[in-house]
Amino acid sequence: MSTTAPIRKNVPLDENLIHAVEAARTPGSTYNYALTHLAGHSAAKSEATTLTALVQLGVKALDEAVLEQAYVDMAAQRQEDADTISYQQALRARRRRSSTDD
Predict the structure, then answer these.
(1) Cα–Cα dist 26/48, whole Å
(2) How far apart are the C-alpha atoms of 101 and 95, rounded to whole Å?
(3) HSE on the CB side for 1, CA within 13 Å?
(4) CA angle 97-100-102, nearest 5°?
(5) Is the pTM of the predicted complex or chain greater than 0.70?
(6) Rounded to whole angstroms, what are the CA distances from 61 to 27, 43, 55, 58, 102?
(7) pLDDT top residue among 73 and 96
(8) What CA–CA distance (Å, rounded) separates 60 from 58?
């Protein structure tokens, strides 16, 4: 059984991101509290674990946004289907009424 080493990527960080990473690693800061609350205490152990945790949290937020959009699309499709069924039922009722009027 073999384990693969993590793949390391070079990621450019602007000043805001550097500040966020430093704040997330600073014990007692609100960023640190939020990070450890969301990702566990080991997330702030090193710069690498902090960056990994922040990327994982970002991916989780992205996944949730994708699922939310899928639910919105599914609800819209269901509404469209319900509207089509209602329209078809109204047409059938109208045809029945017009055929009984003859």
Answers:
(1) 14
(2) 10
(3) 0
(4) 115
(5) no
(6) 24, 17, 10, 5, 62
(7) 73
(8) 5
Q: What is the largest CA-CA distance in the chain?
A: 84
Q: Phi first, then psi: give them for residue 76, nearest 5 degrees.
A: -65, -40
Q: Which two tokens stand for residue 19?
A: 């500040």
- Residue 18 near residue 27, CB atoms below 8 Å: no
Residues in the chain: 102
What is the C-alpha to C-alpha distance for residues 28 and 41, in angstroms, rounded to an integer? 12
pLDDT tens-digit series, residues 8-67 = 889 999 999 999 999 999 999 999 999 999 999 999 999 999 999 999 999 999 999 999
Helix (H, G, I), strand (E, B) or coil at 14: coil
